Amino acid sequence: MRLLFVVNPISGGIAKADIVDKIRTFCLQKIYNADFYFTEGTEQDKFEVNRRIWSNTYDAIVAVGGDGTVNLVGKQLIGKKIPLAIVPVGSGNGLSKDLGLPQDPAEALEIISKYNVQRVDTLSVNDAPVLHLADLGFNALIVSRFHESETLRGTSGYAWHLLREYMTYEAARYTIMVENEASFGLRAFMVTIANGNAFGSNLRINPYGKPNDGLFELCILEEFPKTTGVNILYQLFDDGITDSSYAHVISCSHARIVNVDNADFQIDGETQKHSPDFLDIYIRPESLPILINPAPVLG
């Protein structure tokens, strides 16, 4: 088996030298051929990864990093036969958690040797690929603050920025049209476009999501009194957000969102530099091959 490991050397604030050594040892033991590309955090990364995929014959491309690294690799494999594999070593690791993949790097490597390929859905948002979650509003703002910080990482860093921004955050206006239904407007704390269940911070925004059902969910958290925030946060951690009268989940295969107030926008844990005026969202059924546990976790 020949593998390309795409390694983010700084994801999650974790030094990767030990992990790379474990990967090399694993490949020697399994008699796998291993190539490595270390990302630099520039636009050149996507061109270099794509060049290597097309100029070599690989059995899998392995993302070694967090959600941003998974997105970098995964979007190059949409519509292709080469599967994505994940060694999660980032701050959130949202997609790998939702797919039931091991969070321990050594255990994640063993998934490769089992080579169980399943195809999952992806999303197209204004023609940009989304593997897991995108959203407008408060969470996107926190993701932006998180990436701006050089010291506060992991769940504790996310929580610190959340508490810092919460009291002064104002809900934004959106106009939403689902399928061919009439549009409706509202003020929302955030609107999540979900092909999964939970953020990497373990906040479960979408209890109903399945990664291969041909549908995605719009998870709308309407404007709510600030005093309700603690209860809503508890519901997000406790898988009970749909019990809130402020939360609405809509399953669909196509939707449009007008971002009236140009609220912050993020895709798969990566802040977008320019907040779009509108989002045009489609499902891409079973478009991404991925290596997962042989035990069925999808469906």
UniProtKB/TrEMBL annotation:
SUPFAM superfamilies: NAD kinase/diacylglycerol kinase-like (SSF111331). Pfam families: DAGK_cat (PF00781), YegS_C (PF19279). Keywords: ATP-binding, Kinase, Nucleotide-binding, Transferase. The keyword Phosphoprotein does not apply. Residues 1-129 form the DAGKc domain. InterPro entries: ATP-NAD_kinase_N, Diacylglycerol_kinase_cat_dom, Lipid_Phosphate_FormReg, NAD/diacylglycerol_kinase_sf, YegS/DAGK_C. GO terms for molecular function: ATP binding; kinase activity. GO terms for cellular component: plasma membrane. PANTHER family: LIPID KINASE YEGS, SPHINGOSINE KINASE. This is Diacylglycerol kinase family enzyme.
